[in-house]
Write a structure and sequence with these properties.
It contains eleven helices and twelve strands. It is of the alpha/beta class. The termini are far apart.
Length: 368
């Protein structure tokens, strides 16, 4: 047999996938780390929902469709995580998942949460609130050093799977810890392969609007089966109850659905599901391979042009040093290249997806 790519490995039809994202006809969109490009199918799904509501009102047909689509989206997100849908909650963002975990754990004085100092505010903000409201100690160590920084008071380690500033991956040694691990998957969900067992985490919070290209207000939280009955649900509402008509006797739903966001509307769920299906039709594994490969290529090109690249892992993020990140971001935007600056750092960041191609990378290089 001739050496080369195994026949079982599927490749992305890059040109066909690119056509599904109208924004790419106008700009080099390299900002999925904030929000992924919206596929045409999501716009059509949203339009269908609004037309349904406009023509029929939001009665039984609307809510029946919402219930069915919520479960389809739960199953879709579970497939991204390689998880059982029973263990996946539907949230509005990565940060909401983080908040639900921190609020549901019985942490208090004497407990310590270990995190990295350069985490996103979506994690550090809730940790600050936990410190102020429950007198929980919050200690930091560099991401790469977290496994060795665990101490006798550490009750939880909370950090990114992929660093939002550099694209570095959390150290594999975190999987061997004997304390719960909460991973912020904002920059990894849909972008890189996720093996929850190998990661050794107890909780995994992810976004729907980044590499899964859904609308703002979509996300997920995975709760390990070992924590299924131990993580307290906060703010139980109608959608979180198995028998809401029972009033004060109502019981939480089994599994992670008890942590679902209460107001995740059909106007969000339908386009989120359409975006997932757009990517799934191209093959999620192939989409991830192409995206990480493009990021590696971009890092090579930027380094070859003399730019200083922040240390990174095999992710879809590439960050480089800039003398004036905001000014350079705006100048690139004027040239039709969308990247973002990282507040509080000297870095600009590009985020690649399988929908990008070499022309986007070349356009960025030419505009720098």
């Amino acid at each position: 047999m001739r050496a080369g790519r195994p026949s079982s490995v599927r490749a992305v039809d890059a040109a066909a996938l690119r056509l599904q994202f109208p924004v790419l006809a106008r700009v080099a969109y390299l900002n999925a780390g904030t929000c992924g490009p919206l596929p045409r199918a999501s716009l059509e799904a949203a339009r269908d929902v609004w037309e349904l509501a406009e023509s029929q009102g939001r009665g039984a047909a609307y809510f029946e469709r919402l219930g069915a689509m919520r479960e389809r989206l739960r199953a879709a997100y579970a497939s991204v995580l390689g998880a059982d849908p029973l263990d996946v909650a539907l949230t509005t963002s990565t940060s909401e998942g983080v908040v639900r975990v921190l609020a549901g754990l019985e942490l208090g004085p004497g407990d310590e949460v270990l995190t990295a100092p350069d985490e996103h505010a979506g994690l550090l903000g809730p940790l600050r609130a936990l410190r102020e409201r429950r007198s929980v100690a919050v200690r930091t160590a560099p991401l790469a050093e977290l496994p060795d920084a665990v101490g006798p008071r550490t009750a939880l380690v909370a950090c990114s799977h992929v660093s939002w500033t550099t694209g570095a991956l959390a150290p594999e040694a975190l999987a061997g810890l004997d304390v719960p691990l909460l991973l912020d998957g904002a920059q990894s969900t849909g972008a890189v392969p996720i093996d929850l067992s190998a990661l050794g985490c107890s909780f995994y919070a992810g976004s729907g609007q980044k590499w899964l290209c859904g609308p703002m207000g979509s996300g997920m939280l995975w709760v390990s089966p070992a924590w299924r009955e131990r993580l307290e649900p906060t703010g139980l509402t109608y959608v979180n109850l198995s028998d809401p008509a029972a009033g004060l006797a109502a019981r939480p739903l089994p599994g992670a659905a008890r942590h679902d966001a209460p107001a995740l509307a059909l106007e969000t769920v339908a386009p989120a599901l359409a975006a997932y299906e757009t990517l799934a039709s191209a093959g999620l594994s192939a989409v991830q391979r192409r995206a990480t490969g493009l990021a590696a290529r971009l890092a090579e090109l930027l380094a070859g042009s003399g730019r200083l690249i922040a240390p990174r892992g095999r992710s879809t993020l590439v960050s480089w040093h800039s003398r004036d990140p905001v000014l350079e971001r705006d100048r690139l935007a004027a040239a039709g290249v969308v990247v973002r600056d990282l507040p509080g750092t000297p870095l600009l960041r590009a985020s690649t997806g399988a929908w990008n191609d070499e022309s986007d990378l070349e356009r960025l290089l030419a505009a720098l």
